[in-house]
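Hi all, posting the design record for the shared folder.

TITLE: backbone redesign
STEP: 1 of 1
STRUCTURE INPUT:
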């Protein structure tokens, strides 16, 4: 499941912080900061979707992610490859390397990563 942009943004802050109270999440946002009620609504939706949980400490709640960032983005990228590149990772890689204006150094780094993966297969 892909989160809407506002929920994904909040999830990124929570992944970065790992565990956070409402004040910590609000501090993570740049100015202008969202209203507390907005963040509370987003958290409630994300809890209902199974992305976030919390532990109560008196009247406060400490939120933490239930989904790992790597797992979320892996599913997202795999869905992108399936839906837009005919389930072809090589079509995706071709598009990615041609359309993202990678530098020669970045392309060399990708080549090194691919070579490393080939050795492990």
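Okay, here is what came back for every position:
SEQUENCE:
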């Amino acid at each position: 499941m892909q989160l809407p942009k506002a929920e994904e943004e909040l999830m990124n802050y929570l992944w970065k912080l790992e565990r956070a109270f409402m004040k910590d999440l609000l501090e993570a946002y740049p100015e202008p900061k969202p209203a507390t009620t907005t963040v509370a609504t987003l958290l409630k939706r994300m809890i209902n979707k199974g992305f976030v949980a919390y532990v109560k400490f008196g009247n406060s709640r400490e939120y933490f992610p239930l989904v790992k960032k790597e797992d979320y983005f892996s599913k997202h990228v795999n869905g992108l490859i399936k839906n837009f590149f005919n389930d072809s990772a090589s079509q995706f890689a071709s598009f990615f390397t041609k359309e993202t204006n990678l530098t020669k150094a970045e392309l060399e780094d990708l080549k090194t990563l691919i070579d490393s993966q080939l050795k492990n297969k």
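COMMENT: The longest strand covers residues 52-57.
Let me know if anyone wants the other runs.
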